[in-house]
Amino acid sequence: MRNRIEDAIKAKSSSLRLVDVTKKFRQIGGSGEVIAVDNVNLSIESGELVTLLGPSGCGKTTTLRMVAGFESVTSGKLFLGDEMIESVPPNKRDMAMMFQSYALFPHMTVYNNIRYGLKIKKLPEAEITQRTNQIIELMQIKGMENRLPSQISGGQQQRVALARAVVIEPKVLLFDEPLSNLDAKLREYMRDELRALQKRLGITSLYVTHDQSEAMAISDKVVLMNAGRIVQVGTPLDLYNEPATLFVAEFIGKSNFLPCEIKEKNDDGIESVILGARITVPSPGKNFSFFKGEATAVIRPEFIRVLEKEDGQFTGVVRKTVFFGNFVEYEIEIKNRIIKVESYCPLEKKIYQVEDVVGIAVNLDGIRLLKNNDGEADA
């Protein structure tokens, strides 16, 4: 049964829009400027969970901090619903943020940590009590109300931090790598819990992480950034199966990058030469525009099968075999180039050993063709 606080959060949830947002910092010890975020445009619909993903220094955290109001916007506009907010102070933006460190007050009990934001808003005591009790029940932390943060586990602290953020019924919830302090198993569990709660509440969420598996698991949309710019925006499936650039293909998941020469286009697909073999690529990718010449064929390891040496399009030599239980990872040398292969359900198949000569079959539908000099323009 939904309680009052769930309905209130869903009703207040708002869209968020960034228009031509740029952030420049003055260079330390110099007169120049560093562009940390470069002309970012992004729309987040009400109730969506959107993740900013990218390598360290790509601008994702700076973008989140500008949305929160902790960093000023050098140029551009921020909209919360129809309201322009880039000049609104952080405490007036009707947002809540979960920090990497949780930022719980160590001297306060769980109960007082959660009710703190409501107290600052000077709400009636009866409403504070009602909302605090409801969020404690929703977050399944009943029985811990009188404990200090130091007396509960990391996962429980995360629940308390989330409860404190949600209880004020914000229009947007911001996450700054909230799971990075947890061990791997608990991190995966809390990731799933967090996503389930976000969907249940229908609260607009902007999430920052450098962990691609985390981004893929929780997001409605992933925004991949590099060097301050958006490289591609899409669902996790879009970014994995339809990378717009070589950077996207390399950052999201594992890939083999093979030199390719594009010859011609016909009714069956794109005629190409890959590793010396003439191959028709039936689905070169949604982002592919036909051209002739040098390119890169991107092939995910799971789209390659290892067979007996007389089968497949290529013949190679196994250079490495690693058994992971649910799959075997191979490194196979073909024409002086190492190809990575992931073979699933290995106990149902033969497991090949180092120095075995094998055949290689590529699922042609899994090949994507990308330009070698693709840019990293905004999506």
Automatic annotation (TrEMBL):
Q: Which GO terms describe its molecular function?
A: ABC-type transporter activity; ATP binding; ATP hydrolysis activity
InterPro entries xref list = AAA+_ATPase (IPR003593), ABC_SmlMolc_Importer (IPR050093), ABC_transporter-like_ATP-bd (IPR003439), ABC_transporter-like_CS (IPR017871), Mo/tungstate-bd_C_term_dom (IPR008995), P-loop_NTPase (IPR027417), Transp-assoc_OB_typ2 (IPR013611)
What SUPFAM superfamilies does the entry give?
MOP-like, P-loop containing nucleoside triphosphate hydrolases
Q: What is this protein called?
A: ABC transporter related protein
Residue limits of the ABC transporter domain? 16-252
rRNA-binding recorded as keyword: no
Provide GO CC annotations from the record: ATP-binding cassette (ABC) transporter complex
